[in-house]
Specification:
Helix content: 25-40%
Radius of gyration: 16 Å
Number of strands: 10
CATH architecture: 2-Layer Sandwich
Shape: globular
CATH class: Alpha Beta
Strand order of the largest sheet: 1-2-4-9-10
CATH topology: 60s Ribosomal Protein L30, Chain: A
Structural class: alpha+beta
Number of helices: 3
Length: 196
């Protein structure tokens, strides 16, 4: 079950913590700061999906692989839930290709400081590591940097249109993400996920 906001027929907004899958013509969109959205698609069976996660890990651990840290479940859940739904809609895992976006350090501060600004860099590291480990080719990416992004993913040709957000809007986006981040980091009950 996914939680999304439908805006127009075939157009869906994917909010933080949500994902959407479609085997019908669709455009999936989201707004990203330090969050990451991964667009997965099976070009043979024509199924697309997108997730939007803020936290790859609860607490980043220096020098330790993201996928083996206990808190890596956030990003792993976001990816596995998306992959599971894609397969329910007829996609084959072996056919999947990925495009990934977001992970900005929208305040422009150094990421080696402790605190929230490191989330974007951790998310970027996580998504690259996850895709490499799972053997899903990352065919396009716009990750990191200091600008938020508005993006749309179209099922017609699997294209992704990205528009950078001005710094003032990026700051407001960071404030919104921080509220979500605090709520998510206090949630200790993991979502049940079936791993394939």
């Amino acid at each position: 079950m996914d939680a999304t906001v439908r805006t127009q027929p075939g157009r869906f907004v994917v909010q933080p913590g949500e994902w959407r899958v479609s085997a019908e013509p669709a455009v999936l969109s989201t707004l990203l700061g330090s969050c990451v959205a991964v667009c997965l698609y099976d070009p043979i069976n024509r199924v697309i999906g997108m997730n939007h996660f803020l936290l790859a890990v609860r607490r980043p651990v220096r020098g330790r692989a993201v996928l083996t840290s206990e808190a890596g479940r956030y990003g792993i859940e976001a990816m596995e839930l998306l992959i599971n739904d894609l397969m329910e809609y007829g996609a084959r895992r072996a056919n999947l290709k990925a495009k990934a976006f977001g992970g900005a350090n929208v305040l422009g501060t150094r990421c080696d400081q402790s605190g929230f600004p490191c989330v974007g860099t951790t998310n970027v590291r996580f998504v690259r590591e996850f895709l490499r480990t799972d053997g899903i080719p990352l065919v396009a990416a716009d990750l990191g940097g200091t600008f938020g992004r508005h993006m749309r993913f179209a099922s017609k040709d699997y294209s992704v249109h990205v528009r950078k957000i001005n710094p003032l809007r990026s700051r407001a986006l960071w404030d919104e993400e921080r509220v979500y981040w605090r709520e998510a980091s206090q949630d200790t009950a993991p979502t049940p996920v079936e791993f394939w």
